[in-house]
Amino acid sequence: MRTFFDKLLNPAEQQKQLPLILPLLIALFSGAIFSLALAPYHYWWLAILSPALLYASLRKRSAKHAFFIGLAYGFGLWFVGAFWLYTSIHVYGDTNAVLSVLMIAVMAIVMGLFSAIQTWLYRRFFPETPLTFAPLWVLFEWAKTWVFTGFPWLFAGYAFTERYLDSYAPLFGVFGVSFVVIVMACAIVEVLNKRIFWLVPSAIFLLGAWGASQLSFVQPKAEKPLSVSLVQGNIPQDLKWLTEYQVKTLMIYAELSRSEWGRDLIVWPESSIPMFQTDIEPFLDAMKAQADKTGTSWVTGIPYWDLKASHVEQHPMYYNSIMATGDNASGMYKKQRLVPFGEYIPLSGLLSWVLPAMQNDPSMSGFSRGASDQKPLNIKNHHLGAAICYEVAYPNLTRRNAAQSDFLVTVSNDAWFTGTAGPLQHLQMVQMRAKENGRWFIRATNTGVTAFIDHNGHIVKQAPMDQEAVLRGDLPAMQGQTLYTRLSDWPILGFSMFLLILGWIYRPRTVNVSFKSRR
User: Fold this and answer.
1) Do 342 and 391 share a domain, yes or no?
2) Among this protein's residues, is 223 annotated catalytic?
3) Active-site residue (options: 186, 190, 240, 335)
4) What's the Enzyme Commission number for this chain (predicted)?
5) Choosing from 190, 240, 334, 389, which is the catalytic residue?
6) Does 288 qualify as catalytic in the annotation?
7) Which of the following is catalytic: 260, 270, 343, 391?
8) How far apart are CA 226 and CA 211, in angstroms?
9) Same-domain status, 316 and 439
């Protein structure tokens, strides 16, 4: 085993001792194990080992070889790390098992192209050093938040949520944490390759994490904490949108909320009301009257049909939304980031055969995208920055909402992924968003994980998964802004670009010189 790693790490030996198939297999394996660093497994050290093996596998490889090594890594990363999609595609999407696996494999290849292009650029244009590998890694993580609408999952920084390095999050966000993780991963390879000086930046990063943990950007307001109740109805996904189950769904949530009226805020999860507001106006009026009578604000997820906009646009304008009403409460938030094949089907006429069971699901009828300049919800003279489900995976979107808010609230329906790692990884992202922005996060879900998360990203209280529950908590409003809230991702992105420019300017040119001399 020692001899094998000596060959892998020794650039002089690698080309003649290791055929391409071995780095490909190592990359595939290292990508496949990465997700074990995240929830619910929390083997955080794999978030260091995985990129370290990829970095070592790329030594002295041509750009062409690097492309395929990166593709192997990316395929392993996404096929294993996002296999929780199988439940929604096969179980709830009524797609046969073979086609479901094939669809995930195609997704893994497409997403794997991020890693493939990243490693190709690394070996084509930059010197072999952690200070070019890590910046490229960060820029490609960032690209996953917007290319093809984004799939911002499986970031290295998330493995350190509630761990030592997460103290960088209020300064530079999850990408700052990822940068530190990747530099340290590569530094291990360099140290094993007898470049001992790489212990110095690793020590500096560890010391910096301690220093960052001593900083405080936010503090509680001198006001009474907000008493909040979160209602988890545990409605099975295959029943949620059935017409005959809609009234029962409303009864379940109304009954669970009966004892909570009188508290400052009651929150129901995403689409807990499985009908458009136009279909249940009497129910909404009754709930508002109850809230006004008891001095309670009520926030709920609801599909919203904008009749006025529909008339203007000449087609239905549906929104996945959060509505605030009741005592001293107002506002509506419309979801901005929609999930392809989750809230709308691209080219649905051509792709209706892919997820046949979803074609009659009202949530799949084609939601419209909410505006980017929406105001926070108003609750008891507090501002609630809102996010719906998958939106909390987008760091900058949550940052914009947090900048003008005292609390953050997210509602979700993770019943699509019951029994998988998906809901727990989703929760981990909410924790990172709370840490980045220094705000308490109120998270209400249909089946779990319903939780209160403090401004340091720690789970203060959570409800059991996959059962009916009410979670109560008293939350302080926070004031002040973290450095990340003020400056967004620009400091870490700018620093990464700076390192890459330096790397490109000072890259080795010995190959070109040798080529010219031969000519």
Assistant:
1) yes
2) no
3) 335
4) 2.3.1.269
5) 389
6) no
7) 270
8) 32
9) yes
